[in-house]
Amino acid sequence: MKRALRLALVAVPLAAAAAWPLWAPPLGRRIEWFGAERVEVAGAHLLAPHEVLQASGVRVGTNVWSDPAPFVAALRRHPAIADAEVVRVLPRTLRIRVTEKAPAALVDAGTLRPATADGQVLPVDPAREPVDLPLLDGRVRTDAGGRVADAGTRAALAEAARLGELEPALMARVSELRASRGELRLVLGRPALDVLVRDGMEPGALARLRAAVDDVARRAAADTTHRGRAEVDARFDDQVVLRWQG
C-alpha cells in the first residue's frame, strides 16, 4: 500500500509536467501577471525594430501565452520579411526573430529603394537604414505588387545577387550596375575599373575574372603614368581582355 502511494505521489507531478504544453497556455492567458514586460526584436537590419513591432501586432503587455500564429502571419505579410517566429521567454518576455528578404541592388523606382533578386522592391528607405549595395542604372517601373516590371531588369538583379553570393569581395567594391541584353557592366571606384560580364558565368571564368581585377588593382597602386580608367572584359569563354581608357 505504501509503495503504491509513493508511486502515485511521483506519477502525478510527472503527468502534470508532461501535460504542461496543454494546460499552461490556456491557464496562463487568463493571468494578467503574464503580460510581457519586454519585447525583443532580432534579425532586423533593413527594418527598424519599431517597424517590426508595428507589423507584428505584439505590444508590451501582450500575454506571453498568447497564440503566436497571428503575429507570425502578420510579419510574413510584410514585403521586406521572408520569415518570422515569435517565442516566449518565461516569465514575461516575448522575442521576435525575423529573416529579412535579401536585396541585390538599389533601384530608382521614383525614390531609391533596395530590390531583391526576383525584382521585389522593398519599402525600405536607404537614407534612414543605410545599405551597402550597388545602384542599378536607370529608372524602373513596378507592377501592382511592387515588383520590377521589366524582365531584363529582373534578370540583371538576379545576376547581381548570384555574383554577390559567388564573389562577395568583388561585389562589395561595385558602386553601379549597368545592364544590357544579357550582359552586366560592374562599375568600381577603387581601382577605377569597369568589369563586363555575361549572365551565368561559370566558376572557372569567375576565377579568371578575379585574377584580372586583382592584377588591375596592383597595377593601379603602382601606376605613375595615370593611364586612366581600365576595363576588364570577361564575356568570353576562355580569356579575359584588359583595356586601358585614355
Please tag this protein with its features:
2 domains; 246 residues; 3-stranded mixed β-sheet; Ubiquitin-like (UB roll); single chain; 11 strands; alpha/beta; 8-stranded mixed β-sheet
CATH class of the largest domain: Alpha Beta
Strand-residue fraction? 25-35%
Separation of the first and last Cα atoms:
101 Å
Poorly predicted runs: 7-20
| Strand order, largest beta sheet | 5-4-6-7-8-9-10-11
Overall geometry comes to elongated
Secondary structure: helix percent: 25-40%
Structural class: alpha/beta
* Number of helices, where a helix is a run of at least 4 consecutive DSSP H or I residues: 7
Question: Topology, please?
Answer:
Layout: H1 2-18, H2 20-28, E1 38-42, H3 49-56, H4 69-76, E2 81-89, E3 93-100, E4 103-108, E5 112-116, E6 135-139, H5 151-166, H6 168-171, E7 174-180, E8 183-188, E9 193-198, H7 203-222, E10 230-233, E11 241-244
Parallel strand pairs: 1-3, 4-6, 6-7, 9-10
Antiparallel strand pairs: 2-3, 4-5, 7-8, 8-9, 10-11
Brief description of this entry?
With 246 residues, this protein is of the alpha/beta class.
Please tell me about this protein's structure.
There is one protein chain. This protein folds into two domains: 75 residues, Ubiquitin-like (UB roll) (Roll); 142 residues, 3-Layer(aba) Sandwich (Rossmann fold). Helices cover 33% and strands 26% of the residues. It is built from seven helices and eleven strands. The strands form two sheets. Strands 5-4-6-7-8-9-10-11 form an eight-stranded mixed sheet. The chain has a three-stranded mixed sheet with strand order 1-3-2, covered by helices on one side.
